[in-house]
Amino acid sequence: MVDLKSQYENIKTEIDKAVIDVISSSAFINGPEVKNFEKNLKQYLKVNNVIPCASGTDSLQIAIMALGLKPGDQIITSSFTFVSAVEVIKLLGLTPVLVDIDPDTFNISPKTIEKAIRSKTKAIIPVHIFGQCADMEKIMNIAKKYNLFVIEDACQSISADFIFKDGTRKKSGTIGDIGCVSFFPSKNLGAYGDGGAIFTNNDQLAEKMKIITNHGMHTRYYYDTIGVNSRLDSIQAAILKIKLKYLDNYTKARNNAADYYDKALANNPKIKIPFRASYSTHAFHQYTITLSNDIDHFKLQEYLKAKKIPSMIYYSVPLHLQKAYSNLKYKKGDLPVTEKICNSVISLPIHTELNNEQLKYITTSVLEFIRNN
Question: β-pairing, 74-78 with 121-125?
Answer without folding.
Answer: parallel
